[in-house]
Amino acid sequence: MFRNTNDISIIGEVSVILPDNGSNMPNKPRILLLNGPNLNLLGKREPETYGYQTLSDIVEHLTDVATEHDIDLRHEQSNAEHELIDHIHAAMGNTDFIIINPAAYTHTSVAIRDALLGVSIPFIEVHLSNVHAREQFRHHSYLSDVAKGVICGLGADGYEFALLSAAKQLKQTNNK
Predict the structure, then answer these.
(1) Coil, strand or helix: which one is 33?
(2) Would you say residue 49 lies in a domain?
(3) 154 is a domain residue
């Protein structure tokens, strides 16, 4: 993988290993999974609506799927809008695709919409429940019209479908 010691730089106490520029390393799709407020309560909060799987269960399964498909998957969850925005901003330059379940921020956050547009990273919006079969206020999304796609109502499977779709879209884009 590394040709010689010139590929390793020491900066203080931190070692930085530079990739082999001879293309011996696979170019894995880099996907960020973002989960918004209250999703840390999955499995406990309204399980008849959101299911009995915890967020940890879902992320563990997605990590296995990502490994199987040679995808570099990173996950972040926050109940705070500004932290989700910070994760979106930090993704610029090191992330190829975002999968986001903005939860309640779907219906309220122009700021998350602006952050996603600002970084120009394609994204898929995911919801565990069918938001269109629920209360009227849940029918509007500030993200859907600028997303590559929206998956809702398929429970935790929606995340896997989004992950595989994102990887497929990236592969098709890279093969052009």
Answers:
(1) strand
(2) yes
(3) yes
What's residue 49's pLDDT?
Answer: 77
Domain harbouring 67, CATH code? 3.40.50.9100
Q: What is the full DSSP assignment across 117-138?
A: HHHT--EEEEESS-GGGS-GGG
Detail the DSSP E strand segments found in the chain. 8-11, 14-17, 30-35, 72-77, 97-101, 123-127, 149-152
Query: What are the pLDDT digits (tens) for 66-102?
Result: 999 999 999 999 999 999 999 999 999 999 999 999 9
Rounded Cα–Cα distance for residues 131 and 140 (Å): 9
What is the domain range of residue 68?
34-174
pLDDT tens-digit series, residues 16-39:
333 433 333 358 999 999 999 999
**Number of separate domains in the chain:** 1
Bridge-based pairing of strands 97-101 and 30-35 is: parallel
Return the active site residues.
50, 127
Nearest CA to 132 among 162, 154, 114?
154
pTM for the full model?
0.82
Burial of residue 152 (CB within 10 Å: 0-12, 13-18, 19+) is buried
119-148: average pLDDT: 90
